[in-house]
Design goal:
This protein has 6 helices and 4 strands. The protein has about 180 residues and is of the alpha+beta class.
Length: about 180
Amino acid sequence: RDRKCVITGVANPDRLIALNDWSSYHAAHIFPLSGEDWFVRNSFSRWITNRAGERDTGINSCQNGLLMLSHIHEKFDNFSISINPDDNYRIITFRDDVFNVGGRLLDPSDENSVRNELLRLHFRQAVLANMRGAGEPVFETDFPPGSDMVGEIRNGPDAIKRMEAELFSRLGGLSLA
């Protein structure tokens, strides 16, 4: 569908297309395959309207994918680059813009284009991933052996928030189910 990296605009040359050589390009999922269970539980498949030949949950639909150069795909997956569908599909870079793509606009003009809802989810996750910790206190997490961790937390700044952070970080894998 795209024939080029949608982020950089770098087209795959016709001679490579004729050879079916797309080795520098990846089909990037906007909603990651690793989250397919969450995709299903939250009924995100309702946004996928192009189901021709689909036998899965919709997560593999072309409406959940964009063609990208492999190194750009990596930046997209780690939320260094995202697309804001509510600002004319503007490409936003959250870290050093070494590829000079920040501010470019996508043109999602055909019916098989990626879904705005999925782009919006990715963009929100990118904002959260890159703003994590902004305005929040940073706590020292290394306690010397034999120290009174609870006492230090209780007598330190923002004791309730810090205790909560310590408990959640240490009990993160605990399930009550």
